[in-house]
UniProtKB/TrEMBL annotation, chain A:
Pfam families: TctA. This is DUF112 domain-containing protein. It comes from the Bacteria. It comes from Pseudogulbenkiania ferrooxidans 2002. Residues 20-440 form the DUF112 domain. Keywords: Membrane, Transmembrane, Transmembrane helix. PANTHER family: TRICARBOXYLIC TRANSPORT PROTEIN (PTHR35342). The chain crosses the membrane at residues 20-39, 45-70, 110-137, 149-165, 172-193, 205-225, 251-279, 325-344, 356-376, 388-408, 415-445, 465-489.
UniProtKB/TrEMBL annotation, chain B:
It comes from Pseudogulbenkiania ferrooxidans 2002. The keyword Iron-sulfur does not apply. Residues 5-137 form the DUF1468 domain. The chain crosses the membrane at residues 37-55, 76-103, 109-128. InterPro entries: DUF1468. Keywords: Membrane, Transmembrane, Transmembrane helix. This is Tricarboxylic transport.
């Protein structure tokens, strides 16, 4: 009952005209950003975050904007997957497998509408999950002390290390680079300057917005130089725009379980939309692919991954809101946005800032309804935008990103720093260091250090406190397992396939 | 190979930063862990990871070559120059120049890039500075 009351309060926040308008704008921009190949939710959120801050939006409005962009990207990615056979973002890779064949068979409209519908169902299932589980988890995590928090953050980083990228050492190194960058600036406890080289611009540390824009906007446009998708033509939509009842019934079951799987994967730190859509596509294929239709335009192969990537995006809000530990790169950026407003995400948020938490949750509902409307009847508006020429789009992204950075401090120093971090990010990404780990490290850096020092202050320097309680011990063990198990599984799989090859060649 | 070069550079950087970090000190210590230990711990862990990478590097990196490398270099210079002249030349002028520079890299025609750049510079300036109240440098033309 309490939850319903809070949810009502949240809807009151989300339905304010200003917030509604922001959700509409965010959904629209998000769909475009998600649709454009190369730009994904993290880029969209990164580019809009400084603007939200520069426009002096109140925190709940800024968060609603960013959440709408995040959701919109998960919707938008499918459009280019289906029509261009080029995934608009990483979560939509699987959608191209059956979506593009469907479009080639003249069923582009059906593919687009069923995927929008399953995206919507996935989101709604996940938001209901968020409403049910988040307050419980928040209540439980109130019992966390500094040692438990420290272990939890290590666990989050270890999850990324085990699941993201193919070389765990690179993921860990990326997270460490982020953690180290966060130590630059004045130390909150002692007032000592660290690694500032007596430069006043570095006194409050490397600005979060500069890091985000450098790594996710400037480095992205450098990478875009390499991926010119010429030759691919947009498939014209013909025939039916809307799926029919039979198609809905056919996809209903796989949409539903994909939503649940997607939500669970989204809640886990580290695994995000990409893993969720891959897992559910494979599950749907294993369960339903009796006649070998998957890969040749099976409608369930479109519905399942789309439901999952939206559900996982909503699910990734759970750890951010309840524990204050983001589970994905995009939520890490959003959490950084909250800290810009001097709001510390975590279990206290539910009691101290109910407007923000419940306003955000309610706005996810509202945003998804807006997105469903935008993405079924109005999808033509977006497909036309696929033909915006890159020679205008890329400088536009660069200029708008720079506006956001400049708005924070109005110094050339920040702009140059942004450009240099962009080049550094480009080099790291070329060498396949996962940027999501780096940004997670950067966002968590200060909290990690503070909790470590606080824990050791409590125990007067005795390290045992870090793994004394059963919760922290459990988290340490899980963190260890996260680092060891996935690479072992991968190794075993590789051995098996090597054996299979050996057998087949004999 | 790239991983190895990166690992060596990063080890050197860690060593340099550790030398700087060693000098961090406070006059008064009221907590068991001061401001120095944690950054040094992170540096040590980074050094371990870099050393690992040095001995077990990943697959070769497909760096851009030839014309593409030139494009990447031009883009980096363009973005750096944009950052440097942003305040003095003003948003509109800098953005117009950037659009021409980047637009050419993406095979835009001279005329299209120039017209697009001027329109974008002026339009975005009015949109952000005047309409949304996000202050931008007016610079040479619109100051």
């Amino acid at each position: 009952m309490d939850t319903l009351g809070f949810l009502g309060q949240g809807f009151a926040v989300a339905m304010k005209p200003g917030n509604l308008l922001v959700a509409l704008i965010g959904s629209f921009i998000g769909t475009i950003v998600g649709m454009l190949p190369g730009l994904g939710p993290i880029n969209g959120v990164a580019i809009l975050l400084p603007l939200a801050f520069a426009l002096k939006l109140p925190p709940e409005t800024a968060l609603i904007l960013l959440a709408a962009v995040y959701m919109g990207c998960e919707y938008g990615g499918r459009i280019s997957s289906i029509l261009l056979n080029v995934p608009g973002d990483a979560g939509a890779i699987m959608t191209a497998m059956d979506g593009n064949p469907m479009a080639k068979q003249g069923k582009a409209g059906v593919a687009l509408s069923i995927s929008a519908w399953s995206s919507f169902v996935g989101s709604v299932v996940a938001i209901v999950g968020l409403v049910l589980f988040a307050p419980l988890l928040a209540g439980w995590s109130l019992a966390f002390g500094p040692a438990e928090y420290f272990a939890l953050m290590i666990f989050a980083i270890a999850c990324l290390g085990g699941m993201v990228g193919d070389k765990p050492v690179k993921t860990i190194l990326a997270a460490l680079i982020g953690l180290f960058m966060a130590t630059v600036g004045v130390d909150a406890n002692s007032g000592v300057y660290r690694f500032t080289f007596d430069d006043i611009h570095l006194a409050d540390g490397i600005q979060f917005i500069v890091v985000v824009i450098g790594f996710f906007s400037v480095s992205e446009i450098l990478l875009m130089l390499e991926q010119t998708h010429t030759g691919e033509t947009v498939i014209k939509q013909t025939g039916r725009m809307m799926f029919n009842l039979r198609e809905m019934v056919e996809t209903w079951w796989c949409t539903l379980y994909s939503s649940v799987i997607g939500f669970v994967i989204g809640v886990l730190p580290g695994a995000g939309a990409t893993i969720a859509s891959a897992v559910t596509y494979m599950t749907a294929k294993r369960l339903h692919d009796k006649e070998g239709t998957f890969g040749n335009g099976d409608i369930r192969g479109v519905a399942a991954p789309e439901a999952a990537n939206n559900a996982s995006a909503c699910g990734s809000f759970v750890p951010m809101l309840t524990l204050g530990v983001p589970g994905s790169g995009t939520t890490a950026v959003m959490m950084g946005a909250l800290t810009l407003y001097n709001i510390t995400p975590g279990p206290m948020l539910f009691t101290q800032q109910p407007d923000i938490v419940w306003g955000l949750i309610a706005s996810l509902f509202v945003g998804n309804i807006l997105l469903l409307i935008m993405n079924i009847p109005l999808v033509g508006v977006f497909t036309r935008m696929l033909s915006v020429p890159l020679f205008l789009l890329v400088p536009g992204i660069a200029a708008i990103s720079t506006v956001g950075v400049y708005a924070v401090h109005s110094t050339t120093f920040d702009l140059v720093m942004m450009a240099l971090l962009g080049v550094f990010g480009y080099l790291l990404r070329k060498m396949s260091f996962p940027m999501s780990a780096l940004i997670l490290g950067f966002v968590l850096g200060e909290m990690l250090e503070q909790n470590l020092r606080r824990a050791l202050s409590i125990s007067n320097g005795d390290l045992h406190i870090l793994w004394e309680s059963p919760i922290s011990l459990g988290l340490w063990l899980m963190a260890g397992a996260m680092l060891v198990v996935p690479p072992l599984l991968r190794l075993r799989r590789r051995r098996k396939s090597a054996q299979a090859i050996a057998v087949s060649t004999v | 190979m790239s991983d190895r070069i990166f690992a060596v550079l990063w080890l050197l950087l860690c060593a340099g930063m550790a030398a700087v970090g060693w000098g961090i000190s406070t006059e008064f210590a009221y907590e068991p862990v001061g401001p120095r230990a944690y950054p040094l711990l992170i540096l040590a862990l980074m050094a371990v990871c870099s050393a690992w990478l040095l001995f077990k590097p990943g697959e070769a990196v497909d760096w851009p070559r030839g014309a593409l490398l030139k494009k990447v270099a031009v883009m980096i210079v363009a973005v750096l120059l944009y950052a440097l002249i942003f305040e003095s030349a003003g948003f509109a002028v800098a953005t117009a120049l950037l659009t021409v520079a980047i637009g050419r890299l993406f095979d835009g025609k001279w005329l299209h890039c120039a017209v697009g750049g001027v329109v974008m510079g002026v339009a975005l300036f009015y949109f952000f500075d005047r309409l949304l109240d996000v202050p931008l440098p007016g610079g040479l033309l619109l100051g």
